[in-house]
Amino acid sequence: MHKGIFSFLIFAFSLFSAQYEPVKIAFLSDVHFQDLYGSFSDNDFKGIINPKTGKPTILRTMDAQLHSTRIFNENYFAFLKALDDIAQKGIKIVAMPGDFSDDGQAYNLRGLHKILDKYHDQYGIEFYMTTGNHDPVGPFRQDSGKDDFLGQDGFPLGIYSKENIEPNRKIITKDIAESGYLEILDELKDFGFYPKKENVFWSTPFTEYSYQDYSYKKAWQNADYSRRMYNVSEGFPVPDLSYVVEPVKGIWLMAIDGNTYIPKNTSGSPENPENYKEASVGYNNVLTHKKHLIEWVKRTMAEAKKNDKTVIAFTHYPMVDFNDGATPELKSLLGEKKWQMERVPEEEVAKAFAETGLQIHFAGHMHINDTGIRNFNGRMLVNIQVPSLAAYIPAYKILIIHSWDKMEVRTEVLDDVPRFNELFPLYEKEYDVLQKDGCKPVWNKDILKSASYHEFMLFHLKELVRLRMIPDEWPKDFIENTKKITGEDLLLLVQNPKQLHEKRIDSKAFQKWKIEDFLLDIYKFQSADELARKDIPGERLQQYKILEELFSAYKGQNLLVLNLKKVFKIMSLLSNGDPADHFEINLKKNSVIRL
Prior knowledge:
Number of helices: 18
Strand order of the largest sheet: 5-4-1-18-19-20-21
Helix content: 25-40%
Low-confidence stretches: 3-19
Mean pLDDT: 94
Largest sheet: 7 strands, mixed
Strand content: 15-25%
Shape: globular
Number of strands: 21
Structural class: alpha/beta
Radius of gyration: 25 Å
């Protein structure tokens, strides 16, 4: 072959390969970072001494963790493990869809900044953040604190930002106050909130330049806090830190700030940080009080199409119902205010964003693994829920963009996390004090026998369901009437022994589990989707399927059986949702395929 032609073919092949090199983006949501080994700028307290390591540690109690939908301490180690994984895989872009902190305290923001800088400097990873309802808790800084840090003597210790919040044992530091947008922007501007010179493009909902007349200087000027305000209600200007960035040629990452802080009293002061409702409701409030975001997404999608850009959006809040079609049954059984129903986005949310042209959206907030798909007039919107590192199932997502129309999503579960049990000796002391004190129910000490992070987080879910979810969410009469029921008892509610014999169903095999195991397994599916199957015995899954079919066929009027019929339908829907582990998104065919 002629040397010149051969060289040209090599050049052409290299150009083709470079052009279609897959782009990988990792999504780390709801990290809820708290700096175990941080320090305060105005107080010498550095925590309590851990006898295992000899290091001072600022941590929350195990009792607090087991009553919360998230842990506060061990997720520190999980975060480091996830970042190590990402670095090892050679991924250079990490998006963080909110709740990167736990209430945005200054000492935690500093600690987070330090860690992200380390991974940027060592591995060249670029981080892009958007805010969640825990960062900030409100639009402006406000005094706060927690009464459930662990003291050296094993009793709870309060840490507050000012003297008069609580009269009991306490540490006072301004660094525990809940930061507002201004403080978060100042501390974390390097992580997407401000442009970088190496970005191909960067803009906000309030910029007026286009892709063609972009300059870094214009972008920097428009990133200023004062230029990112809107009226959430008349006379109530609050910040919006949304932005779109082109970190690599051809890919636009759209970070949508879905926080909507509505004033409690429109006659009150717009500068009073306590005069704003929390933002946890999510996109339902965007439709009513933050409409400029939808218009901005629409403009951005049009600009991206004109310039051949692929848009990947991420926000803290889901755009699509995350209950796999079970929402009506859940409302009917538990009520309108249970199961975090106020956080379920209305169908109008998905429709509004699908009509902007948006197709791929990553979200957090719910601490669940899920995929939601909606089609409106030929427009497909795929909402991918990124699990939390601080809840079951602890995982992050990887998006692999093979081409503009074909993408792959992988879920990376953190089974083993180095040092996850580093704080266990401190919990031993806490448990002993609680037991001697006898003032409140004691958590199950067996959690300290966990052999892996996965096992630890599964135990956290079990205790959370026992201590909080069942008492708070389920009707008391239902729990009272079923608390001693086994799987065999459930069978006999809808079939007599003769019918079971005819169907060749061995009822004795159903004796191995009780209703409390069944309810826990429902929460496993709610949290982990198809990944929960690895944490439920295969035989029991088969038995659930048999019971689902039998209860579905029930035509009687027994109230308890009718309620159980709803429970089994909920289980069936939650355990058979859209692909949520490893799947392909084909935008040309409007399809999502399990891989």
